[in-house]
């Protein structure tokens, strides 16, 4: 009888206890040394747990314990199909990928579905879903290590009804587009995402965006945007987003806030002032950034909109016409070719150019830079991925210091192995979050560690209206990161980007350990995180 009682008393009380860590709860409050217990998928206790036991216990003395980080702009929608482990983000402590910058994985019609299949590159997959909610549930069912969420893409609903045409929608088309947004919100979308420099988005008027955003407002969703211009016309572009927020009442966020091209760098102070005036007016306007002075986009980015109307196939056909090509060369205002690195090709015969600048390739081929770019787009039959050095390091520091700025990677979640190594991505895929903690917090002390963690956890969770995520608090989901503030660092470089970050010891997603002692466990407990408009079963 005594033996039975003894056995009962020794039974672990919790699934897991993290002991003695320095807890940063995600609110920005000062850190405290405490223990934390996890049972199932939830945090159940925080404090002195000396009288408690866990089936598993982790000694976190000297380590930081925080909520999992939220990637406000992720392109992991296809990379997670290839590899659900999400290595490049998990190794930085990211536990939620938020997708949907202008385009989303649904809604799809049959033509869009076929185009998605035909335009696949190294990552091959079937498309058994039609709506955005079906895609997100499909991914959870497949098994992924990170949680996922998505905005519905304004361009996606436009393409669904109008293709890539340069015109206003008819009344019926507008009603159909709004219905797609209604459905996406009810299925759990975070709101509406736009990416206004990319075809067909430049053809959408502010009024069209307002009409779609009004739907989102009815579900308490967010409008988030890659604004129409990040260079010469940046003031007007920021004002457009603020106008949409003012007229619809939604929360609004600017994707990867930046001012591009040296001639515009001094405009950042006024951009910040415009946003802060809107915030002082009571408008909920925020932004996110990645921590690098280079951006990444397609080689076709600088081409005039008229040549891109109708989509990629029509673009390539036009460029094959010598007369049209001549006009495009005359009209294209490209940044200095030495500032453009070509990093991903569809055509294997062109991959020897990977990592070279447009200036280098131009010299190798003996043609002027813009002509070289057009020829490569034709030969590769793709937009061709590029990295562009267009931003100021001083401006990055200014943006990091802003209390309303959160973090993103603007990249897929990759692995340092094939097929991801067939291209040379922007190092932000492997380092954006770790770089904030190592370079800008520990080394340069731009902001405190408490503030940095808040910007990657509590702030974006609040902006998105996430349910019981983003803080260390009893009852909240156990998305948790344990890392060493003295060693966390990004290793990825522009020359050698496929390098995992270091310093993160343990990562838990919904209570399951995905990273243990710096090694991935193979666990895939990630879930489809629903937005505020979700209509549950």
Characterization of this structure:
The termini are far apart. Strand 11, helix 9 and strand 12 (251-254) form a beta-alpha-beta unit. The protein is 34% helix and 19% strand. The chain has 19 helices and 21 strands.
The tally of strands reads 21
Biggest β-sheet, characterized? 9 strands, mixed
Shape category: globular
Structural class: alpha/beta
Number of continuous helical runs: 19
Average pLDDT: 96
The CA-CA distance between the termini, in Å, is 47 Å
- Report the portion of residues in β strands: 15-25%
Helix content: 25-40%
Radius of gyration: 24 Å
* Low-pLDDT residue intervals, each spanning 5 or more residues: 1-9
Indicate the topology.
Blueprint: H1 2-9, E1 14-23, E2 32-39, E3 42-47, E4 54-59, E5 64-67, E6 69-71, H2 76-82, H3 87-90, E7 94-99, H4 110-118, H5 132-142, E8 147-150, E9 152-153, H6 154-162, H7 171-186, E10 191-195, H8 206-217, E11 222-226, H9 234-248, E12 251-254, H10 268-280, E13 285-289, E14 295-298, H11 305-308, H12 312-319, H13 322-331, E15 340-344, H14 358-365, H15 369-380, E16 385-388, H16 393-400, E17 405-407, H17 428-443, H18 449-456, H19 458-464, E18 480-483, E19 504-509, E20 512-516, E21 519-520
Parallel strand pairs: 1-4, 1-5, 6-7, 7-8, 9-10, 10-11, 11-12, 12-13, 13-17
Antiparallel strand pairs: 1-2, 2-3, 5-18, 14-16, 15-16, 18-19, 19-20, 20-21
Helix pairs in contact: 6-7, 7-8, 8-9, 9-10
């Amino acid at each position: 009888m005594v033996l039975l009682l003894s056995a009962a008393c020794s039974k672990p009380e919790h699934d897991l206890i993290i002991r003695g860590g320095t807890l940063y709860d995600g609110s920005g409050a000062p850190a405290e040394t405490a223990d934390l217990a996890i049972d199932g998928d939830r945090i159940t206790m925080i404090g002195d747990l000396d009288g408690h036991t866990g089936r598993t216990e982790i000694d976190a003395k000297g380590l930081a314990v925080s909520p999992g980080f939220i990637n406000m702009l992720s392109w992991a929608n296809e990379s997670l199909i290839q590899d659900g482990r999400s290595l490049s983000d998990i190794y930085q402590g990211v536990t939620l990928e938020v997708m949907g910058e202008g385009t989303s994985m649904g809604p799809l019609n049959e033509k869009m579905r076929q185009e998605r299949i035909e335009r696949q590159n190294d990552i091959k997959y079937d498309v058994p879903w039609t709506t955005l909610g079906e895609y997100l549930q499909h991914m959870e069912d497949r098994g992924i290590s990170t949680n996922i969420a998505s905005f519905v893409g304004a361009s996606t609903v436009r393409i669904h009804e109008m293709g890539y045409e340069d015109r206003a929608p008819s009344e019926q088309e507008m009603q159909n587009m709004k219905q797609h947004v209604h459905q996406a919100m009810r299925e759990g979308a975070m709101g509406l995402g736009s990416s206004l420099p990319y075809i067909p988005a430049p053809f959408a008027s502010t009024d069209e965006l307002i009409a779609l955003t009004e739907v989102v407002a009815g579900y308490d969703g967010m409008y988030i945007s890659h604004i129409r211009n990040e260079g010469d016309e940046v003031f007007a572009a920021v004002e457009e987003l603020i106008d949409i927020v003012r007229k619809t009442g939604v929360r609004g966020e600017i994707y990867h806030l930046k001012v591009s091209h040296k001639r515009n760098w001094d405009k950042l102070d006024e951009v910040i002032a415009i946003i802060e005036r809107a915030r002082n007016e009571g408008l909920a306007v925020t932004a996110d950034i990645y921590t690098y002075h280079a951006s990444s986009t397609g080689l076709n980015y600088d081409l005039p909109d008229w040549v891109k109307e109708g989509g990629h196939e029509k673009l390539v056909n036009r460029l094959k016409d010598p007369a049209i090509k001549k006009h495009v060369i005359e009209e294209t205002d490209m940044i200095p070719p030495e500032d453009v690195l070509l990093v991903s090709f569809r055509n294997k015969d062109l991959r020897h150019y990977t990592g070279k600048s447009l200036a280098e390739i131009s010299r190798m081929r003996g043609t002027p830079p813009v002509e070289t770019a057009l020829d490569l787009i034709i030969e590769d039959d793709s937009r061709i991925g590029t990295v562009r050095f267009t931003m100021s390091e001083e401006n990055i520091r200014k943006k990091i210091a802003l209390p309303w700025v959160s973090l993103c990677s603007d990249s897929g979640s990759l692995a340092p192995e094939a097929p991801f190594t067939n291209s040379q991505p922007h190092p932000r895929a492997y380092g954006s979050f770790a770089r904030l903690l190592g370079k800008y917090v520990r080394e340069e002390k731009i902001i405190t560690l408490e503030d940095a963690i808040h910007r990657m956890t509590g702030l974006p969770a609040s902006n998105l209206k996430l349910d019981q995520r983003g803080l260390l608090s009893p009852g909240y989901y156990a998305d948790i990161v344990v890392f060493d503030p003295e060693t966390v660092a990004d290793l990825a470089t522009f020359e050698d980007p496929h390098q995992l970050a270091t310093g993160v010891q343990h990562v838990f997603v919904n209570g399951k350990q995905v990273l243990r002692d710096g090694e991935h466990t193979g666990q895939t407990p990630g879930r489809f995180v629903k937005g505020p408009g979700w209509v549950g079963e």
